[in-house]
Amino acid sequence: MGGDKIRKDKRQKREDYRAAIRKEGVSELPRKKFYRQRAHANPFSDHQLIYPPHPDQMDWSSLYPDYVVDEPQEQQTPGPETPSDLDLAPLRPKRISKEVEVADIGCGFGGLLVALGPLMPDTLVLGLEIRVQVTQFVEDRIKALRVQDQEAKLYRNVGVLRANTMKFLPNFFRKGQLSKIFICFPDPHFKARKHKQRIVSTTLNSEYAYVLRPGGVVYTITDVPDLHEWMVQHFEAHPSFERVPEEEQEADTLVNVMRTETEEGKKVERNKGQKHVALFRRLEDPAW
Amino acid sequence: MILPFHLVKSCGGFVFAAQGSDIHTFSSALEHVSTWKYPAQPVDKPHEPSAETQSSPAPEGPPAKRRKVEDCQDSVSIGQPAESTNGKPKSKKAAQYDCPANERPFIQGLYATADGRHLIAITGADKTIWVFEHDLAATLTLTRSMPKRPCALALTTDNRTILSADKFGDVYALPLLPSSTSKSVENSTANQSSPRSTTSSIQTPSRSTTPSAKPFKPQADPLTVHTKRNLKALEAQKISLARREAILREQQQAANRPQFEHTLLLGHVSMLTAICVGTSSSVDGRPREYIITADRDEHIRVSRGVPQAHVIEGFCLGHEDFVSRLCVAPGGRAELLISGGGDDDLFVWDWLHGTLLGRAGVLEHVKEVAGHEAASKVALTRIFACRWEGVRVVVFVVVECVPALFQFELLEDNTLQHRETIPLPGNPLDMEAIETPGATPRLLVAVYPGEEGGSSLIPLDKEEAGWRLGRVENLPAGGDANIGDEELQKILYSTESLRKSSDFD
């Protein structure tokens, strides 16, 4: 079949390209055309995801190698422990000196990540993306940028992970760990039947509230007016969030970054589309 | 083939046992009192008078109990599995598993209120929650068909609210008994409309209808679609809009029919497998309720109780396979939670703080029963904890397809220790303790006797020499179900199927 042949060629080219980029020390930025993937992923399927059973068991050292803490080895030596004791205290991964505080949920090709890195150099920023190829692109992109910016030591604070945040957000982050969550141009899921797959819902907002500290902010942007309305309705209806007033929103420099630096934002710009922004602040939990 | 008993529940001095889609009532001395049958399609069994399903008085002892079947016929979709709200037939799979030969669905869960006054049952294929009043005469008082299939129920400590955890990951609160206003509304609809449409008229309170439902309008606009084909599709969508709106108006009128009270409390993006309610005192010393939910994706979530169920207090994380059972420890140890599922171990948690206190191996004991080669994993189906001889807290564990009960003891240092393995003549399906004042409790185990036959309901008494397996005399024969052995096993042994199939390395 001709189609098969073309597909095979494409895959072959893709593999060759990626092998080459690895070998050449990744100083060159990756090209998107070798990393394309269908824009939708089913958040309900199991996939073959890798995630820690508990945030304490998450190994951040490979994502943020510059922040690894050199620890004396004595912690590693196991005492005369029974197997069950070992199970209780699983091997602690290498610690890093900071914690991830900003998450970009559905980071796509990583435009926002790359913009945020130099803007908040003292904060660890993590992109989360469910599509394998796209995650790979961002990974290669970050690698290349780190090599290019050897002197300025930029982009050491950004990382990317493949994850299904709708299921596994609490596996990565502890309660109140994050100060900012970005949800930029999420899949609109136009069909009413697919609304349950949307990244914002009454029940999921409780999980965002869990990982955000009081005072933390969720940033949302979309070019679909109905999705914007949906997100506003669902966050405003959730008792843990309040909408950030417009003046304050426009004064936030990150809002402008989100408008102009996201890959999707640029595309909307080219097509002369509209961009709808809404920010929501995590409120203090009431007494219980 | 004759169905085994697969669920047992002790409630208010009686013992209820489910067999297929029937519920049998026994006295605490295990004498059969009466039987409630899932309302059958009238065409199928026109000869069956209601008197037959009503009980005959028990020969002695407890007062006779009566079940009214005719009452519920107005409010139940009879016979066939209920259709989902949008009129689409149920998926083939569900119909096949739960409605053998398109008959009556299996009872999937039996629950009792703490005060022993109500028994609650769930059936799978028709997604229905049944509430039985359990006073002098036990009566089916209420049936409600949920938007998604309920997987597990719990009751709030005041016994007034049912928390229903469903396959879709959501937890709904619904009053055990409807408040007087909504009851009258419910009755009136039951009278004026056909039985079928009553159950299916309940509007699905999906995420899409919260916070408010809106009329349909195309969400894309020429600015958000970029390809020629999509633009064309958008045009087509706009043209058919008028027609759709007419249909929608009609639907909304249908949806405006009264529905039972239910509130969405919380949700996981995963199938829920277990739910329970924990209590802990707050800063001011008053008891506070928490909702503990477990899902197929290894999570145990602790949320605050109503009205702050949107606040997630924490997670108990550490399971590496599905969680299928949760159990808050009894006997003044309510700060402890025991959980299990597809992992080799049982876990003990301080659930409010999300800290793992201990683990106890189950697989090693399963291997002793099933053989070291045959058993490589555990699918835990029951965790049953009760007080024993005053102060001790013992935990019985049932593992799918393993013909034994595993007894653990919850020690003072909050760890679990294996005490003994009680061999059984068949695979246990459910168990319950029958409390007798002043004596050690008697265990009642529902087993699947397998092809050789044998009793399916076995009382166990602890004696000095070990456990004595008893017999329940005059077990009701139970209806012959038109179901093959393989099909039956699929229904009875469904826990292992929660395991993710992707780990083939």
Automatic annotation (TrEMBL), chain A:
<comment type="function">
    <text>Catalyzes the formation of N(7)-methylguanine at position 46 (m7G46) in tRNA.</text>
</comment>
<feature type="binding site">
    <location>
        <begin position="262"/>
        <end position="264"/>
    </location>
    <ligand>
        <name>S-adenosyl-L-methionine</name>
    </ligand>
</feature>
<dbReference type="GO" id="GO:0106143">
    <property type="term" value="C:tRNA (m7G46) methyltransferase complex"/>
</dbReference>
<keyword id="KW-0819">tRNA processing</keyword>
<protein>
    <recommendedName>
        <fullName>tRNA (guanine-N(7)-)-methyltransferase</fullName>
        <ecNumber>2.1.1.33</ecNumber>
    </recommendedName>
</protein>
<feature type="active site">
    <location>
        <position position="187"/>
    </location>
</feature>
<keyword id="KW-0949">S-adenosyl-L-methionine</keyword>
<feature type="binding site">
    <location>
        <begin position="164"/>
        <end position="165"/>
    </location>
    <ligand>
        <name>S-adenosyl-L-methionine</name>
    </ligand>
</feature>
<dbReference type="InterPro" id="IPR003358">
    <property type="entry name" value="tRNA_(Gua-N-7)_MeTrfase_Trmb"/>
</dbReference>
<dbReference type="InterPro" id="IPR029063">
    <property type="entry name" value="SAM-dependent_MTases_sf"/>
</dbReference>
<comment type="subunit">
    <text>Forms a complex with TRM82.</text>
</comment>
<feature type="binding site">
    <location>
        <begin position="129"/>
        <end position="130"/>
    </location>
    <ligand>
        <name>S-adenosyl-L-methionine</name>
    </ligand>
</feature>
<dbReference type="GO" id="GO:0008176">
    <property type="term" value="F:tRNA (guanine(46)-N7)-methyltransferase activity"/>
</dbReference>
<dbReference type="Pfam" id="PF02390">
    <property type="entry name" value="Methyltransf_4"/>
</dbReference>
<feature type="binding site">
    <location>
        <position position="184"/>
    </location>
    <ligand>
        <name>S-adenosyl-L-methionine</name>
    </ligand>
</feature>
<comment type="pathway">
    <text>tRNA modification; N(7)-methylguanine-tRNA biosynthesis.</text>
</comment>
<keyword id="KW-0808">Transferase</keyword>
<feature type="binding site">
    <location>
        <position position="106"/>
    </location>
    <ligand>
        <name>S-adenosyl-L-methionine</name>
    </ligand>
</feature>
<keyword id="KW-0539">Nucleus</keyword>
<dbReference type="InterPro" id="IPR025763">
    <property type="entry name" value="Trm8_euk"/>
</dbReference>
<comment type="similarity">
    <text>Belongs to the class I-like SAM-binding methyltransferase superfamily. TrmB family.</text>
</comment>
<dbReference type="GO" id="GO:0005634">
    <property type="term" value="C:nucleus"/>
</dbReference>
UniProtKB/TrEMBL annotation, chain B:
<feature type="compositionally biased region" description="Polar residues">
    <location>
        <begin position="74"/>
        <end position="88"/>
    </location>
</feature>
<feature type="region of interest" description="Disordered">
    <location>
        <begin position="40"/>
        <end position="96"/>
    </location>
</feature>
<dbReference type="GO" id="GO:0005829">
    <property type="term" value="C:cytosol"/>
</dbReference>
<dbReference type="InterPro" id="IPR036322">
    <property type="entry name" value="WD40_repeat_dom_sf"/>
</dbReference>
<dbReference type="InterPro" id="IPR028884">
    <property type="entry name" value="Trm82"/>
</dbReference>
<comment type="function">
    <text>Required for the formation of N(7)-methylguanine at position 46 (m7G46) in tRNA. In the complex, it is required to stabilize and induce conformational changes of the catalytic subunit.</text>
</comment>
<feature type="repeat" description="WD">
    <location>
        <begin position="316"/>
        <end position="350"/>
    </location>
</feature>
<feature type="region of interest" description="Disordered">
    <location>
        <begin position="181"/>
        <end position="226"/>
    </location>
</feature>
<comment type="pathway">
    <text>tRNA modification; N(7)-methylguanine-tRNA biosynthesis.</text>
</comment>
<keyword id="KW-0853">WD repeat</keyword>
<keyword id="KW-0677">Repeat</keyword>
<dbReference type="InterPro" id="IPR001680">
    <property type="entry name" value="WD40_rpt"/>
</dbReference>
<feature type="compositionally biased region" description="Polar residues">
    <location>
        <begin position="181"/>
        <end position="212"/>
    </location>
</feature>
<comment type="similarity">
    <text>Belongs to the WD repeat TRM82 family.</text>
</comment>
<protein>
    <recommendedName>
        <fullName>Transfer RNA methyltransferase 82</fullName>
    </recommendedName>
</protein>
<dbReference type="GO" id="GO:0043527">
    <property type="term" value="C:tRNA methyltransferase complex"/>
</dbReference>
<keyword id="KW-0819">tRNA processing</keyword>
<dbReference type="GO" id="GO:0106004">
    <property type="term" value="P:tRNA (guanine-N7)-methylation"/>
</dbReference>
<dbReference type="InterPro" id="IPR015943">
    <property type="entry name" value="WD40/YVTN_repeat-like_dom_sf"/>
</dbReference>
<keyword id="KW-0539">Nucleus</keyword>
<dbReference type="GO" id="GO:0005634">
    <property type="term" value="C:nucleus"/>
</dbReference>
